[in-house]
Amino acid sequence: MALNPGDSFPSDITFQYIPWTEEKGKITSCGIPINYNASTEWADKKVVLFSVPGAFTPTCSVNHLPRYIETLPTLKAKGVDIVAVVAFNDAFVMSAWGKANEVKNDDILFLSDPDAQFSKRIGWADASTGRTGRYALVIDHGKVSYAQIDTQRGVVTGSGADAVLASL
């Protein structure tokens, strides 16, 4: 079932994640993955969650993620507490992608959706690849206030930072 504006964010969503630390800040350093209970962590916050088909892929690395990095101060000024990106990649790859893009201090959380479990649950996994789809959600204190998916390959519109900003 797809999430729609007005829906409650599911109560049992856990991603994997490697917290950013200065001592593990180099791309060649590895941290230890931990579970990140999004349902609990986001219950009383305004969150922008965007999903990409894969870390280090062309559209995701050139068009999708950079605009979120650029607009992070504006998103925060509009009351967003947390910005997170999710992909089917494992937590090590997601952590390296954040480091490669010089995102520090968990300014954007790089979360792993193992086997695209969350994306499949909401019906927004890519059926042909089994990967996470390209979508964006705004979750405001446990309620979805924005939900858009881009289904055309290589196109970032409704899931992009500018569309999300316009919805805030």
From TrEMBL:
Against SUPFAM superfamilies, the record matches this protein to: Thioredoxin-like
Q: Which InterPro entries match?
A: PRX5-like, Redoxin, Thioredoxin-like_sf, Thioredoxin_domain
Catalytic site residues?
C60
Q: Which Pfam families match?
A: Redoxin (PF08534)
The regions listed as transmembrane in this protein's record are none
Q: Which Gene3D superfamilies match?
A: Glutaredoxin (3.40.30.10)
- Tell me what this protein is called: Thioredoxin peroxidase
Quote a single Gene Ontology cellular component term: mitochondrion
- KW Oxidoreductase (keyword) present: yes
Which terms are listed as keywords in the entry? Antioxidant, Oxidoreductase, Peroxidase, Redox-active center
